[in-house]
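subagent[fold] <- orchestrator: predict structure for attached chain, return tokens only, no commentary.
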Amino acid sequence: MPDPTLHLAVALDGLGWHPAAWRLSHADPAAPLFPRWWAALVGQAEQAALDLVTIEDSLDLQSSLPDGPDGRVDQVRGRLDALLVAARVAPLTRHIGLVPTTSVTHTEPFHVSTAVATLDHVSGGRAGWRPRVSARRSEAGHFGRRDLPPLDPTRLGEPQTARLVGDLFAEAADAVEVVRRLWDSWQDDAEIRDAPTGRFIDRDRLHHTDFTGRWFSVKGPSIVPRPPQGQPVVAVLVHSTVPYAFAARHADVVFVTPTDAAHAEAVVAEVRATEETVGRTGPPLRILADLEVLLDDTPDQARRRRTRLDEWHGAEFHSDAASFTGSPAQLVDLLAGWRRAGVQGFRLRPAVLPDDLTTITRAVVPALRDRGLFRAGYPGGTLRDLLGLPRPANRYAVAGPR
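subagent[fold] -> orchestrator:
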């Protein structure tokens, strides 16, 4: 029988996920550029005992277009680095998981591995990582190492675009593999630290990764000792078959984007089938559904807020995930229905920050607890423990005397 307790996460992005959120938010428009903003948001999520927060990032400015700048000056542009934000917040929190986003298309996996491993040490085992494929030509233009065609969502089915997407995810797979090998390149007991004998490290317990592929050649070992979790949690956002396979091979948590309960059931079935197809050997993926949420005391009030935001935006807002507009009680009904469809939790995207996050933590979470769908507090341990994921053995571990 499946565990009835949901996993709950919130996705933090600027002043909210709606492009016009800054005009309705009660916060100062400059707030996302200051550490206290992020500390307050993550602290609020931790007070509600949420499993984790994700922090959005990209390598180009926000835009309403699929690729490139849109020329708008009436919406938020610019953000802080997600990994650095997570590192700043880590010492101010005790239990909640911290999952920053980084690009794997234009970022060296060695740098990512050391940064996320450091975050895991700083947080005491609460780090995660969301690798993101950068398919936009505008992002590639910042680096000058490759020339990508303009991203056109209407042509994703064409053979040339399909090959490009396949290559980008194959590169992402190699990047995650390199990062994971580097996390294992120090065995847990590699550091001896024995002052009387003068032995600080056991060199036999440091390992070369010796990875050579189409995009990367990385010798290793890492410069950072093995993270407290062994392997920090890898979480990916996916929408279709090729990314499902990437998640099944390389991730621990997958964020999916169903449109309703029936679609959620179909997506879960496809993810599980993909795990079998690729021969996944680790624990099953934790499947969390993404949902952009705008909440108010009554459905009518919530709809009025949505209408006002869309008017400022100049069109009805649509994202890659489904949008919910209504009361906390209605949202709880929806989450319970999708849970019965097989998803194990949710990553909620607050439309306006901090407003919708406050409603999530003060109204939605207590209502879920009343139904027995969410725990009352933190059980302790690492982020892997919280998600029910075992600590992996080190792939390079050898038995024998030191």
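orchestrator: received. Logging for downstream: Residues 109 and 178 are 6 Å apart (CA to CA). The two ends are 44 Å apart (CA to CA).
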